Amino acid sequence: MIEVAAEPFNYSFPPDKVALIVIDMQRDFVEPGGFGESLGNDVSLLRAIIPTVADLIGLFRIKGWPVIHTREGHMADLSDCPPSKIRRGKPSLRIGDEGPMGRIMIRGEKGNAIIPELAPIDGEIVIDKPGKGAFYATELGEELEALGVTHLVFAGVTTEVCVQTTMREANDRGFDCLLIEDATESYFPEFKASTLAMITAQGAIVGCVAPLAALEAAAEESKAA
Ligand code: C5J
Looking at ligand 1, which atom is closest to the CA of residue 160? Predict the structure, then answer.
């Protein structure tokens, strides 16, 4: 087992049963002109975590531990997008509308792609999800079962929406979860802080939280042991 200094208590994981899930580091959320900005958000806040997420992905790749990426987006005919979701946002900049990076939040469009700095490499699983949670209406559960994964490490955006929703889904399915706090971000810093507090409250009701440095140190220590 590898033991990471975390809150509210240390997080232990078997290195052959862990995977990283990087949530929605896609142009629609992180770059100007996408869905995130169309909702009135300042995307520059999210860009600050890109180097940390890259280092986290790099650690998993070096270790040979699975890296899974997710993208929130919809089919071109919007048949997988509830009308209530389409109605959100500013008129003429809604899901399916033509934006600066193609149709907003539509699979295959430029804006729906994962940002080039964090692009998946061959062999990494990419989950296209229509909802906020990565388990809903996707093959994620089956993929994790096939890999024999029991422990999940999380990163990505936004902390209180897709990251938290997916972590809660994972927790309910019995996965032991760790969120890397400096590899996740929100358009609203106070929402991120509240989410970290909610996750770890009541004896880690959803999971544990730790900085990347703690995971790196634990991985290094286990190598020396
Ligand atoms: C949102 C996400 N915020 N990836 N999506 O709509 O968190």
Answer: 7
User: What does the pLDDT look like over 213-223, one tens digit per residue?
Assistant: 999 999 999 87
For residue 81, indicate whether it is catalytic.
no
DSSP per-residue string spanning 178-219: EEEEEEEE-SSHHHHHHHHHHHHHHHHSS-EEE-HHHHHHHH
Six token digits for residue 191: 């929402």
Q: Is 176 a catalytic residue?
A: no
pTM for this one? Answer: 0.97
Write the pLDDT tens digit of every residue in 14-68.
999 999 999 999 999 999 888 888 788 999 999 999 999 999 999 999 999 999 9
Q: How far is CA 103 from the centre of its chain?
A: 22
CA of 187 to the centre of ligand 1 (A): 10
**Residue 23 alpha carbon, nearest atom of ligand 1:** 4
- Among 134, 159, 196, which Cα is nearest to 48's? 159
